[in-house]
Amino acid sequence: MLFLSQSAAVYGIDALIVDIEVNLQPMIKKEDSYVTIVGLPDTAIRESRERIRSAILNSSYFFPFQKVTINLAPAAVRKEGASFDLPIALGILGANGDLGKIDNLNNILSFGELSLDGRIRPVRGALSIALTARNSGIKSLLLPEENATEAAVVNGIDVYPVRDLREAALLIQEMSEGEPRRVEPLTLDIETMKQIPSEHRFDFSEVRGQATAKRALEIASAGGHNILFIGPPGSGKTMLARRLPTVLPPLEFEEALEITKIHSVAGLTGRSGLITERPFKNPHHTVSQAGLIGGGSIPRPGEVSLAHLGVLFLDELPEFDRSVLEVLRQPMEDKQVTISRAATSLTFPANFTLVASMNPCPCGYFGSTRPCTCNEFQVRRYISRVSGPLMDRIDIHVDVPAVKFNELRGKGVGPSEASAEIRKRVIRAREVQLKRLNGDGVFSNSAMSPKQIRTYCELDSKCEALLEDAMTRQGLSARAHDRILKVARTIADLDAKENIESGHISEAINYRSLDRNYWA
Ligand SMILES: [Zn+2]
User: Fold this and answer.
1) How many angstroms does the Cα of residue 372 sit away from the middle of ligand 1?
2) CA atoms of 494 and 429, how far apart (whole Å)
3) How many CB atoms lie within 10 A of CB 144?
4) Is 172 in contact with 128 (CB distance < 8 Å)?
5) Over the stretch 216-267, which tens digit does the pLDDT of each residue have?
6) CB 275 within 8 A of CB 190
7) Rounded to an integer, what distance in angstroms lies between the CA atom of residue 440 and that of residue 452?
């Protein structure tokens, strides 16, 4: 007796349909193995034999006293994990005649890990699987309760949350015999979900003082620029970075889907459905290369992909391993990351805004009101730990001094502006850029090529003089030149000005403090 069941394997952030054939044959010799699984399974699938057997018996079904052969196809797709437990168990029940009149599961896709007692445990990648199933024309999806909300975001497929193997088997039997069903498909109000909420847990109105740093973050959001904070410990660098997602434009529905897929594949969505806030990731400085850009024998997304369409915050930048920072260059350039393995290579999206922070010197107090105990050599060595090529991709450097006592107490300063107000200006500036650059296939000022910089950042003689003065007298490096122009373009866009004016150039020059004060 041959019975067909269906599931899907997660591959990168997408899923591929896996056909599961279950064949029952009478045993010839006593020593014939009970269950054989073929089709490149890894050890997890081999272990699943015992789980499936126990789950079937504990769900009050018979385990067939026959030779059971299970084939997972296509064989070329590497499969891992326990998510095939449920479809294999259903296939065995089907082959044994325990699913009613139905003779295959071609219209029903299932996945989930089984416990020994038959309960169904959640797995990773539910959203990707639901999308693939829907696109393959499959009508129904049986899946663990915990994964259901996420999968139900997908239109055009019925999503049935099931708690245990018996419930899943009875549901299929009811479907095949046209009986009333005990489990109804989960329906979500997609239209309401599409209205991505704009409230955040954090807000710029909570940050006292730090006007320069806040302004720099507004410019970074408006032009898609990466940003570096330099300041002593306790000056609020983390607090500022944490609030950057609140002034970026709200997510589109498709963007929210993409972010949710990445988190789902990494097993980070839990019971929640769609992720509607831009991510903020701040890996510790001990993070490994694989942790940062992704890895594993079947690669999983790293922090750069989990920060996709949001913010990657690297606190204490010089403390990170140099080789770890080196691998950031590819995703920062390509907005995606490719992980190569012997047999294949996988690509994950990684379009993030980088916010980095560092102390000005090893003791932390260089240039501040407290005395610095480091000598010049120590300061230079500390700063040179961050590679030039990485610094080349950070347009804005800004000093974040310790907050003055008066500012901390809210004296002499007006109320801080709320994120929603700042965001309105950011959105307007982004619209201006899109109009200007869209034809060139570029979406923000920070992504302009040298040729585009020459076209869109023309300077009058006054601005030209200011820039030349900064380059020569203040000793700014050549690498600073194009960055200043790009940032000046964004400042002019925020100011709704067609041309870059001298005020815009002067402000942009100020955001090169590292070149000026520490680097050169
Ligand atoms: Zn120091």
Assistant:
1) 4
2) 5
3) 25
4) no
5) 999 999 999 999 999 988 888 999 999 999 999 989 889 999 999 999 999 8
6) no
7) 9
Q: What gap in Å lies between CA 334 and CA 7, rounded to an integer?
A: 33
Specify the DSSP class assigned to residue 116: T
Q: Give every CB contact of residue 254 below 8 A, 6+ residues apart in sequence.
A: none
Tell me how far the alpha carbon of residue 388 lies from the centroid of ligand 1, in angstroms: 21
Q: Which amino acid is at 399?
A: D
What does the block give as tokens for 19?
């056909």
At 63, list the tokens.
Answer: 């385990």
User: How much distance in Å is there from the Cα of 381 to the middle of ligand 1?
Assistant: 12
The CA 360 to ligand 1 mean position distance, Å, reads 7
Alpha helices in 96-210 (DSSP H): 126-135, 145-151, 165-176, 190-194
Task: Tell how far the Cα of 362 is from the centroid of ligand 1, in angstroms.
Answer: 5
Q: Of 516, 383, 494, give the one whose Cα is nearest residue 428.
A: 494
Measured in angstroms, how far is the CA atom of residue 304 from the centroid of ligand 1? 31
- Joined together, the tokens standing for residue 351 give 């379009």
Which residues are CB-contacts of 486 (< 8 A; sequence separation ≥ 6)? 223, 225, 395, 445, 446, 448, 453, 457
- Rounded CA-CA distance 94/290 in Å is 42
Beta-bridged to residue 4, according to DSSP, are: 21
The CA 83 to ligand 1 mean position distance, Å, reads 53
Query: Coil, strand or helix: which one is 120?
Result: strand
Cα separation of 338 and 357, whole Å? Answer: 26
Ligand 1 centroid to Cα of residue 359, in Å, is 9
pLDDT tens, position by position, 180-199: 777 788 887 767 666 656 56
Instruction: Calculate the CA 438 to chain-centre distance.
Output: 25
Cα–ligand 1 centroid distance for 374 (angstroms): 4
Between the alpha carbon of residue 188 and those of residues 90, 191, 192, the distances in Å are: 27, 9, 9
Q: How far is the CA of 386 from the centre of ligand 1 (A)?
A: 17
Query: Could you tell me the pLDDT band of residue 520, with boundaries at 50, 70 and 90?
Result: very low
* Encoded tokens for 384: 């040179």
Looking at residue 227, what DSSP letter applies? E
Gap between the Cα atoms of 453 and 489, Å rounded: 9
**What is the rounded CA–CA span in Å between residue 10 and residue 191?**
27
The single residue listed with the structure tokens 């015999």 is: 177
Residue linked to tokens 């040298």: 450
